[in-house]
Write a structure and sequence with these properties.
Helix content: 40-55%
Shape: globular
Strand order of the largest sheet: 2-1-3-4-5
Number of helices: 11
CATH class of the largest domain: Alpha Beta
Largest sheet: 5 strands, mixed
Bound molecules: zinc ion
CATH topology of the largest domain: Beta-carbonic Anhydrase, Chain A
Strand content: 5-15%
CATH superfamily of the largest domain: Carbonic anhydrase
Length: about 240
């Protein structure tokens, strides 16, 4: 395969073949190796080889502006949906795009991402993106009240979102209300934004105004994206 990439004739054939395959008419379910070969070929010929200065600069180091939390759902890749370029967004993806509260005993994978992105990379924005028809959020809303779980990790993970679920259930007490899933997709983002503030380096930079926290929601049914911020202005309440 490597030889093919260096062959000019094949390169042209590949480019033509590629135009066909990236038209998003259908999901390619062919050979995994072929999908990867074609995908990297596309990236290399349309981006890496085409903009050498860009990638030479990136090779020296990264200085991403964003840390993005998004769901692992295969339909919501932020680099695709928001067109983030290489080097632009440090990325964390997990089931239901949840950020747990600061905890040195659990969830070190998430904690390490936040710590590194904020203290070493100095990201300016942490964006948490929820999405329409999130399976993780539906699972959270449908969790049995007795806390019984039937899997190794999934329910334990999505229980991070329980405060969001409780808020939605208080607002929409009818268990048959389908609106509760959509509502919880956004409430879980807000919960994650609040949880981000339990990380001391996040709290410190937000207070200084060098870091912003934003929530987003991608609706892939209607092709819409909402974005909101949290306002932590300190207002004087009393002066005596
Ligand atoms: Zn999801």
């Amino acid at each position: 395969m490597a030889d093919q990439l260096s062959n000019e004739a094949d390169r042209e054939d590949g480019a033509n073949e590629f135009k066909e395959e990236t038209a998003l008419r259908r999901i390619d379910v062919g050979s995994p190796v072929e999908i990867i070969r074609r995908g990297f070929y596309h990236f290399k010929t349309t981006e890496f080889d085409k903009f050498p200065e860009y990638f030479e600069e990136l090779a020296k180091g990264q200085k991403p502006q964003f840390l993005v939390f998004a769901c692992s759902d295969s339909r919501v890749c932020p680099s695709r949906v928001l067109d983030f370029k290489p080097g632009q967004a440090f990325m964390a993806r997990n089931i239901a795009n949840l950020v747990p509260a600061f905890n040195k005993v659990r969830y070190s994978g998430v904690g390490a991402i936040i710590e590194y992105a904020v203290t070493a990379l100095g990201v300016e924005v942490i964006l948490v993106i929820g999405h329409r028809r999130c399976g993780g959020i539906k699972e959270l809303m449908d969790l049995p009240a007795d806390g019984a779980t039937s899997n190794d990790f999934i329910h334990d993970w999505i229980k991070i979102g329980l405060p969001a679920k409780a808020k939605v259930e208080a607002e929409l007490p009818d268990p048959k209300d389908e609106e509760k899933y959509a509502r919880c997709e956004r409430e879980a983002v807000n919960l994650s934004l609040v949880n981000l503030l339990t990380y001391p380096y996040v709290q410190d930079r937000v207070a200084k105004g060098t870091l912003k926290l934003m929530g987003g929601h991608y609706d892939f049914v209607n092709g819409k994206f909402d974005l909101w911020g949290i306002d932590l202005d300190i207002k004087p309440l009393l002066h005596i």
